[in-house]
């Protein structure tokens, strides 16, 4: 029988050889959380063509090479929470057309390039809580992204640019608590389908 799950969590792993997962084309779930991984290279996951869920929480990841996740056409869930990422480029998550849930909470993210989420055509939940975004720019989230739940709690956000949420017509749960927003920022929340808005502990 083919290997479908690999559990390597809590092993003090700090790095992988580029061919560590070579030939593992049938693996669907990969547990790599609670290690000391610092960098993800674009060749590490080349053969993980059937992977659906990856857990990378609580590592020391500060860099993800562009197109690292590109081979993972079936990926639905990606957890990168509790790491040291500082930026997301428009090639970090390129081609993840089936991704439904992305957890980037508890990092040091201060920069998200325009169109970084453009190819995530099925994403329902995006968690960016506990980062350092400061400003929600009007090119951060692309129109027609199917996000339903967006968590921006405790991101040091002091400004929301006009049009920041434009076209997010499926968004119904938005968490903006523990930021530095003022009343005038709240007038820019033009989200027609919004049902739950959390704004506790702002200015």
Structure description:
With 203 residues, this protein is mostly beta strands. The chain has 1 helix and 15 strands, in the order ββββββββββββββαβ. The protein has one helix at residues 183-186; strands spanning 5-7, 29-31, 39-40, 53-55, 63-64, 77-79, 87-88, 101-103, 111-112, 125-127, 135-136, 149-151, 159-160, 173-175, 196-198. The strands form 4 sheets. The protein has a 9-stranded parallel sheet, with no helix packed on it. Strands 3-5 form a two-stranded parallel ribbon. The chain has a two-stranded parallel sheet with strand order 7-9. 34% of the residues are buried. The mean pLDDT is 94.
Quick take:
The chain has 203 residues and is an all-beta fold. It has one helix at residues 183-186; strands at residues 5-7, 29-31, 39-40, 53-55, 63-64, 77-79, 87-88, 101-103, 111-112, 125-127, 135-136, 149-151, 159-160, 173-175, 196-198.
Spatial arrangement of strands, main beta sheet: 1-2-4-6-8-10-12-14-15
Shape: globular
> Roughly what is the average pLDDT, rounded to an integer?
94
Helical run tally: 1
Structural class: mainly beta
Strand proportion: 15-25%
Q: Would you count the extended β strands for me? A: 15
Low-pLDDT runs of 5+ residues are: none
Order of helices and strands: EEEEEEEEEEEEEEHE
User: Mind summarizing the main beta sheet?
Assistant: 9 strands, parallel
The helix content, as a percent range, equals under 10%
Q: How big is the Rg? A: 17 Å
């Amino acid at each position: 029988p083919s290997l479908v799950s690999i559990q390597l969590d809590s092993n003090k792993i700090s790095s992988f050889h580029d061919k560590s997962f070579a030939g593992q084309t049938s693996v669907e779930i990969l547990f790599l959380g609670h290690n000391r991984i610092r960098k993800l290279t674009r060749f590490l996951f080349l053969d993980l063509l059937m992977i659906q869920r990856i857990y990378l929480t609580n590592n020391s990841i500060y860099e993800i090479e562009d197109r690292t996740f590109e081979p993972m056409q079936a990926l639905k869930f990606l957890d990168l929470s509790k790491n040291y990422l500082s930026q997301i480029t428009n090639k970090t998550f390129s081609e993840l057309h089936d991704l439904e849930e992305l957890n980037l909470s508890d990092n040091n993210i201060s920069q998200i390039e325009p169109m970084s989420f453009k190819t995530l055509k099925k994403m329902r939940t995006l968690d960016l809580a506990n980062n350092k975004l400061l400003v929600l720019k009007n090119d951060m989230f692309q129109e027609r992204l199917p996000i339903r739940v967006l968590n921006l709690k405790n991101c040091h956000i002091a400004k929301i640019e006009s049009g920041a949420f434009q076209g997010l017509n499926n968004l119904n749960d938005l968490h903006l608590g523990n930021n530095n927003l003022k009343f005038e920022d709240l007038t820019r929340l033009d989200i027609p389908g919004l049902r739950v808005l959390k704004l506790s502990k702002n200015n």
